[in-house]
Amino acid sequence: MMAEATATGSTPARVTTPRRANDRDLVDSLVTVLQERINAGEIPAGSWLRQEALAKELGVSRMPVREALRELQARGSVELIANRGARVRLPSTRDIIEVYELHGLLQGHAGEAAAELITSQQLDRLAAAEELFRQSVEDLRAADDDTTTAQRHWHEANTEFHTVIIEAGGNKHLAEMYDNLHHKVPRNLTWIALGNDVRRLEKDAAEHAGILDAIGRGDPAATRALLTEHVKRASDLLVRTVDEIGQDSPPRRR
């Protein structure tokens, strides 16, 4: 069943309104807020985004909300359906394959450079993230029905781990490309694939530990190979997950 959502999270955020309702800064801030909530799964794929409800929640007029939704459509995060409104887009399997193919190339290239260029401070950050991966496994193992803590720790670890690798690689243009790719596939889809199976999460944590070891040893070739394979496995898992979600969803009205 398709959900219908505003931008609701645990604590709805109001966006500070500039002097003009259609100010570029306001639209940008709305795009950032909505994109982050989509990425985190607070607004799940398939949810309808109602302009009036969003405007009321965020404390703005409908016009900047409309512009923000158009920008999210351009990013591929939202689809605008004639006479029906805006809906958070579930990426297709082709989207995932293509996006993760690029992820693998960028991460592999950055990882190879990071193995030679990483600083001790960045290496410490990677080690802390790797520890948080292992903590998320224990959180999930101890959880009953509420996996919120495990999910939060995994998201924090995954974001930090791969961000540090990109930073350590030292290519700012590659970093910009990598950041743009994050808008294409909501990161909560990966948690949906991992968070219902402790063994999958353990394997994911072990893969990150292996990447950390290769970088710590200063082995560029091994780092590239491990990152590329890690991203490929994530892509395969996401494709299966999206196929399963698609099978459970009602057909789209044309």
TrEMBL record:
<dbReference type="Pfam" id="PF07729">
    <property type="entry name" value="FCD"/>
</dbReference>
<dbReference type="InterPro" id="IPR036388">
    <property type="entry name" value="WH-like_DNA-bd_sf"/>
</dbReference>
<dbReference type="Pfam" id="PF00392">
    <property type="entry name" value="GntR"/>
</dbReference>
<dbReference type="GO" id="GO:0003700">
    <property type="term" value="F:DNA-binding transcription factor activity"/>
</dbReference>
<keyword id="KW-0804">Transcription</keyword>
<dbReference type="InterPro" id="IPR008920">
    <property type="entry name" value="TF_FadR/GntR_C"/>
</dbReference>
<dbReference type="InterPro" id="IPR036390">
    <property type="entry name" value="WH_DNA-bd_sf"/>
</dbReference>
<dbReference type="InterPro" id="IPR011711">
    <property type="entry name" value="GntR_C"/>
</dbReference>
<protein>
    <submittedName>
        <fullName>GntR family transcriptional regulator</fullName>
    </submittedName>
</protein>
<feature type="region of interest" description="Disordered">
    <location>
        <begin position="1"/>
        <end position="21"/>
    </location>
</feature>
<feature type="domain" description="HTH gntR-type">
    <location>
        <begin position="24"/>
        <end position="91"/>
    </location>
</feature>
<dbReference type="GO" id="GO:0003677">
    <property type="term" value="F:DNA binding"/>
</dbReference>
<keyword id="KW-0238">DNA-binding</keyword>
<keyword id="KW-0805">Transcription regulation</keyword>
<dbReference type="InterPro" id="IPR000524">
    <property type="entry name" value="Tscrpt_reg_HTH_GntR"/>
</dbReference>
